[in-house]
Amino acid sequence: MADNKKAFILYTDQKEIFEQLPLEKRGELISIIFSYVNDENPTVEDPILKMAFTLIKQVLKRDLIKWEERAGRSRNNGSKGGRPKNPTKPKKPNGLNDNPDEPKKPVIVNDIVNVNVTDIVIVKESVINSHSWIEQICMKKRLELNDVKQYLTLFLDDLELKADLDKPEKDIKAHFVNWLNIQIKNVKKNMPKTLEDKYAHLI
Questions:
Q1: Is residue 2 in a domain?
Q2: Which residues, in sequence order, are CB contacts of 193 under 8 Å at separation 6+?
Q3: Looking at the structure, do residues 66 and 123 belong to the same domain, yes or no?
Q4: What is the largest CA-CA distance in the chain?
Q5: CA–CA dist 69, 63 (Å, integer)
Q6: How far apart, in whole angstroms, are the C-alpha atoms of residue 141 and residue 201?
Q7: Are residue 201 and residue 138 in the same domain, yes or no?
Q8: Tens digit of pLDDT for each residue in 152-164?
Q9: Total domains present in the chain
Q10: For position 7, what pLDDT does the model report?
């Protein structure tokens, strides 16, 4: 965790991750999360806990990056001294024939576009909005729609953090399907009781 950062956030939609685990596993997951945010680099052997922790860890990483960016901007502004305490209004220039008319404010056109960021946003939105493709995955893998969407969002966020979203959309989709297959295999290895009904078709 970054220096001077004393808190982290768990989101209400992560409740379902905990509810899928038995009570003793929930306690272990919380301990792993606290160990992680305190830079203790926890090792998770249990495949179910590992998958649950991975889903939460990606969100924690994303939040930390945003926090560090805000903190960096604040430090930068502070080093410049902030705004002047008593700004003085500049005097109007004295022209030869009284004061000239004040020039009209120019219209500023910002034509600088970060192509990489724009492309990444377009690709990410296009993949997330590929409804028929997502529904096909649900039918083939026999998973619930909300679960696939959650996995897909976290998968894309992880690629974005790794700056690995500059690939063709079809490659990203194929990569996600392979990644999802690995997650399903991990679930098969050690299925807790609370998940057996939901994912009985995977056993």
A1: no
A2: 22
A3: no
A4: 91
A5: 10
A6: 9
A7: yes
A8: 888 888 777 777 7
A9: 2
A10: 81
Q: Are residues 73 and 156 located together in one domain of the fold?
A: no
Assess whether 58 and 139 both reside in one domain. no
Tell me what pLDDT residue 193 has. 53
Rounded Cα distance, 12 and 14, in Å: 5
Residue 124 Cα distances to 115, 155, 179, 180, 190, angstroms: 14, 10, 17, 17, 32
Q: Residue length, the chain?
A: 203
Residues 120, 201 within the same domain: yes
What tens digit of pLDDT does each residue of 79-98 get? Answer: 666 555 555 665 655 555 55
Q: So what's the pLDDT on residue 188?
A: 63
The range of the structural domain enclosing residue 144 comes to 116-203
Instruction: Give dist(CA 185, CA 190) in Å, integer.
Output: 9
Q: What is the pLDDT of residue 47?
A: 87
**Would you give the distance in Å from CA 36 to the centre of its chain?**
17
Residue, of 201 and 26, whose pLDDT is higher: 26
Percent of the chain with pLDDT over 90: 0
- Counting other chains too, the contacts that 78-84 makes at CB distance below 8 Å and 24 or more residues apart are none
User: Both 69 and 120 in a single domain?
Assistant: no
- Look up residue 139 and give its amino acid: M
- Alpha-carbon span 182 to 177, nearest angstrom: 9
Residue-wise pLDDT tens digits, 126-153: 888 888 888 888 888 888 888 888 888 8
